[in-house]
Amino acid sequence: MKTDPSELDASPATIENCEPRLALSASLMGAWLAPLADPTQDLAADDAANSPAVDAPEFLPTCQATPAIEANLVNPIAIANQAFNDLPIAPAVLNPAASISSPGSATTESSLDQLFAQSTLNTDPSGDGDSLLDQAARIGSASQLDGYGQTIAVIDSGIAYDHLAFANESGQTGFGSGYRVVGGWDFAENDADPYDDAPSGYHGTHVAGLASGMTDTIDGDTFRGVAPGADLVALRVFDDDGNGNLAWIESSLRWVYDNQDSFEFPITTVNLSLGTELTDANRDYAYGLIEDELQLLFEDDILVFAAAGNGQVQLSPDADDLMYPASSSWVSAVGSVDTNGNLSGFSQRADDMFVAEGQQLQSSVPEHVLGYDGYVNDYTSLSGTSMSSPQVAAASILVRQAMQDAGIEATSESILQRMQDTSVEHVDPTTGVSYRSLDIEAAIDFGTSNSAEPEPGTETGDPSSEPAQAIAGYEGGSGADALELDLRSILSGDANSNLPLLTDSNGQYQISMDNETIVIDAGAGSDTLQIFGSTGNEQISLRPTTGANAGSSTIAFAGGVIELRGFENVTFIGGGGEDRATLYDSDGNDELRSSQDQAQLSGVGFEFQLEAVKKLYVHATAGGNDTAHLTDTEFDDQLVIRPQFSSMRGGDYFQAAFGFERVFAYAEAGGDDHADLGDSAGDDIMSISQTRSLISSSGYRASALGFESVEATASLGGDDTVRIYVDDPDGTWHTSESLTQWSGNDGTSRIARGFEHSQAFENYETVPVGSSSLSNDPSAVAATLVAESPAMTTNASDLERENDEHLRALRLLFEELA
């Protein structure tokens, strides 16, 4: 049974709801439902490596093609029952084998902890294992590298987002902003609730747990996926009975591309633990449907990993070695090995594919699998390449994070090359196929600073240490230097200690301020500087070392000005004054993340960080496709977004972003917040709903999440459209030719001015607005739809039916649920 999601973060741009029902499933269905009915049955427990794959389900009848329900939705492809009856979509899991309880039997916290203890079999109790789960656990413990700052999309049967394995830092489970499962879409039921439903759902939750699950048990045991710091997006492409189709997968891939930046952290990785067997007869069809989406993702540096398949034993002679999409050149195939590193007997294989353990792995499953008891913390053991793929996908997230931390450009090519270069090559003695097991600990090791430990009395951040000497400037060498500049003593009133202090690997120095400007030059290499501000007012300007905005950085304070040269990484920590910071971008694709207390501007080869700075000005003018994330303060904030300029003001805090192509604003810190969004010179589409507002056109995209009141203005030209959606009946509408306004009795409002086309919806029903509005009269709506969609039929009953479909689609596309 589904539960309502708390928030819809993004909706798909296209929904294609008719393809041949190909019995696509990574969960069990048809003949596969027998093991699910008795999850204690383990067909492969004794000899998983040599288990034959179970026959794939039969092809199901083709559904009827339906016309598009709105002009901006792609017409479903009408496919006849022709050459593709031999294209069943095979699951990439062998069988569900629960270690305790049968369905419907009561489970207790004690028995669940007993099963939880078994889940530690995924890792070596000694901590010395070389599985990806073992390596990730050691990495997380030693370096805190856990995938934080990224989102992985799981295209599968959905995710049971109420499972404790997906709880946030506060121990809360749910769906939407603030939770671990931050968003998604159900393509099977065409709604915003991608829950892993009964009777056949379980597979997506199991896969998601291996990728990013994390829970501590009552007795202190831990279940841990490879990248538990990463967020999750659930894209459901199987219905309750386990049926799916290729069109849902195509739409889910397109959804990832369109919504990659719709959440707090970008979608960087996709996992597909599913696939189909391709032959000469059906390859062109499958490639024509999905290959273009896979290429778009790869070229946008979103990596896709897919299960190699479990049909090695009975693979057809004329079939490809790997399931599709694992066989795509834009996808990384993942096979299964046993605990000794040998290829599993069921695993399909190809030269140079990645592998991970895929036999009898414990992971999370929805409550319905082992029986409802109100304690959503169930686990079971599964085998298959389905279990291997999410581990490798999550491992790539750790590699990307490490590369970004090291200032190395993380592209699809560079990440995969790093994973391959540090992997261990093996050869299967039976088939001669080579395969690669990952050494993630080697992949994330980019060396350490060559700076020596400071001598006693010169520890970093210790302003009381005795300076070794006074200097009037500083010049570094060619190595990677790490320096600290401390201004905290300059307003102390002590004449002997009111000078800035500079610390490097050799000691601490007192900077003489006799000259008007002091130069600190780090020289060549990747250099780092940390600055501690005074209680006074500092002004800091930071520039990258290369590109159109390259130049010296400066910091001005009560005692003078210091010029900073050659620093790729700078951190400034304010001391409590009215500090102001100005940051400049590089020529590449840069990202700004700013809030009341912290800000970060990063790109290839540089990173600037700020703490406790009240005034921030960031210029993204050097080039690239730049993104800004602005978060509100605890005060009543005013957000303004325009092409090339955005600002957020609350209390004494001010954030300004210039030249960013994409701006995402979040009101989550409290206060009564107002957003003002403006159009571009192109044709803009504006959507305003209860929790999220979005405006976009070519080269311009902005969204505001969580603001109590939203005002949108179209004044720069183009043919602009606005849609306003409300579900609160306690409000009033006011409309005219150029104004559409809804005012709530609680003081909130949604206002749109100057748009050429306006549509309004209240409780999913159309509200007449302006001259271009749609009437509530079905026949009038149908007539409008016919004029806009010439491919639609003209039968009167069809028009009314299509009107209902039109309204339903708009509801799904533009609704945000609280």
Automatic annotation (TrEMBL):
InterPro entries listed in its UniProt record: Peptidase_S8/S53_dom (IPR000209), Peptidase_S8/S53_dom_sf (IPR036852), Peptidase_S8_Asp-AS (IPR023827), Peptidase_S8_His-AS (IPR022398), Peptidase_S8_Ser-AS (IPR023828), Peptidase_S8_subtilisin-like (IPR050131), Peptidase_S8_subtilisin-rel (IPR015500)
A GO term, aspect molecular function: peptidase activity
Family as reported in the entry's similarity comment: Belongs to the peptidase S8 family.
Region (Disordered): 446-475
Source species of the chain: Neorhodopirellula lusitana
Peptidase S8/S53 domain ranges (all copies): 148-423
Pfam families the UniProt entry points to: Peptidase_S8
Keywords: Hydrolase, Protease, Serine protease
Active site: 156 (charge relay system), 203 (charge relay system), 386 (charge relay system)
Name of the protein in its database record: Serine protease, subtilisin family
GO annotation, biological process: proteolysis
